C-alpha cells in the first residue's frame, strides 16, 4: 500500500482515538452512574492506547526505527488493537439505553464514543489486512532468499 495513504489513515486513527479519549474522560468526570463503569474505563484506556502507544509505534517504527519494526510485531499490534476496539464498542453499545431513554449529555457522549469506536475498529480492520498481507509477502520473499542462498552453498 502507498505510504502516504497509510500515514493519512494513521492520523485519522489518532484523531478518533483522541475523540474517544475525550468523550470517555468527560463521562468519567460527570459523576453520573456511568463514571464507575468499567466499560467506560476501557474506552478511556483504548483512547490512550491508540493515541499514545499503538499508532505512534505503528506509524513511526517502520520509518524511523526499522530495528523495532519486526515483521511479526507490526501485525500483532494491529490485531490486538483491532480486537480491543471491537470489544470496546460492542460492550459500550450493549450497555447503553435505547435512544429514546438517552436524554442526558453523558449518555450522548457515550453514543458518540460508540460510533467513533466502531469507526476506529473499521480503520484497524483495514490496516490489519495490509499488515498481514505485508507479512505474507515478507515471508514469501524470505523463503526464496533462503532457498537461493542454500542452493548457492551447495555448488561451492
Automatic annotation (TrEMBL):
GO terms for cellular component: membrane. The chain crosses the membrane at residues 12-36, 42-65, 72-92, 112-132. Pfam families: MARVEL (PF01284). Keywords: Membrane, Transmembrane, Transmembrane helix. Residues 8-130 form the MARVEL domain. It is found in: Membrane. It is a multi-pass membrane protein. InterPro entries: Marvel (IPR008253). This is MARVEL domain-containing protein.
Amino acid at each position: 500500500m502507498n505510504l502516504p495513504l497509510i500515514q493519512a489513515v494513521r492520523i485519522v486513527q489518532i484523531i478518533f482515538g483522541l475523540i474517544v479519549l475525550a468523550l470517555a474522560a468527560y463521562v468519567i468526570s460527570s459523576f453520573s452512574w456511568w463514571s464507575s463503569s468499567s466499560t467506560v474505563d476501557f474506552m478511556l484506556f483504548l483512547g490512550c492506547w491508540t493515541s499514545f502507544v499503538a499508532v505512534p509505534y505503528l506509524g513511526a517504527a517502520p520509518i524511523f526505527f526499522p530495528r523495532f519494526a519486526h515483521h511479526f510485531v507490526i501485525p500483532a499490534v494491529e490485531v490486538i488493537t483491532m480486537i480491543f476496539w471491537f470489544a470496546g464498542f460492542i460492550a459500550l453499545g450493549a450497555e447503553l439505553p435505547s435512544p429514546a431513554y438517552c436524554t442526558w449529555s453523558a449518555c450522548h457522549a457515550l453514543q458518540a464514543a460508540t460510533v467513533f469506536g466502531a469507526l476506529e475498529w473499521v480503520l484497524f480492520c483495514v490496516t490489519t489486512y495490509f499488515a498481514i498481507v505485508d507479512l505474507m509477502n515478507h515471508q514469501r520473499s524470505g523463503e526464496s532468499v533462503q532457498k537461493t542462498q542454500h542452493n548457492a552453498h551447495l555448488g561451492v
